[in-house]
Automatic annotation (TrEMBL):
It comes from Enorma phocaeensis. Coiled coil: none annotated. Zn(2+) binds at residues 150, 154, 204, 207. It comes from the Bacteria. Residues 13-313 form the Deacetylase sirtuin-type domain. This is Sir2 silent information regulator family NAD-dependent deacetylase. Keywords: Metal-binding, NAD, Zinc.
Amino acid sequence: MGMYFSGFATRTGEGCEDSVRRLARELDAADAVLVGAGAGLFTSAGLTYSGERLARYFSDFVRKYHFADMYSGGFYSFTSESERWGFWSRYIWINRYAPIPSDTYKQLYDLVKDKDYFVLTTNVDHCFQRSGFDRGRLFYTQGDYGLWQCSKPCHDATYDNESVVRSMVLAQGFSISGDGTLELSPGGLDACGRMVPERLAPRCPVCGRPMSMNLRADDTFVEDAGWHRAAARYQDFVRRHEGCRMLLLVLGVGGNTPVIIKYPFWRMTASSRKATYACVNLGESFCPREIVGQSVLLDAGITQVLRDVAREL
Ligand SMILES: [Zn+2]
């Protein structure tokens, strides 16, 4: 890319309140807003992988496999397909189809909905679309909990899993309330089998192999037609707004996959003096020194910052 950064800054010299005010001002003045969102946003919305949610829905699996959070549980080799889908169906349901526990995403939507916006995210939970964001303005680069693919894969298509996942959790003795909340049976998890009937284990309609999650964990990840269309729309958004007054707003992006969001956002900021880079991340908010004058860095909770910004507008 021909652009190298010399070091990092964690502060812009402003206090937190000044930064919030500046972020509100930049948002208000921006012609376009490009949001980059990572796992920290998902967690800020109350979608945690450990603690109460883990105990509530997975204590039977934890007793057997001793994983510390449900995300790690996804990497275990279970004893059978039936048990594997017992685990995954609960995981998919509570993180993809059950109600989002807080209005963090709705707050963000309210801040950007009247702007020309686009969202690039490594999250796979579909919270943006479920909170009102236009699906034509989203690019989920790493997959979707709501999609399956052939495990080989023998072809590049993905398949909606909602109705089968629903059958899987019901078969384990859970019920699903009207708003989509996964409810335990009166006997709790002990009364609930960890298994789903073998007939529900999904098979590839083309080759008959087991299906797998459409998540970028290794090189079997399927980039289907929808993925390619979203990628093209993202590139188009960036191209159309070159040189515009653009706010690049990064929320909850950690250090795991910097090539997807952070590095390109830094480069875009450095290459346009009308661009502003804003980063909100509790415990990890920094930018290259070269763009510190164009940056708003907030080492703070995302939900609180969004609320404070809305109040400033
Ligand atoms: Zn196949």
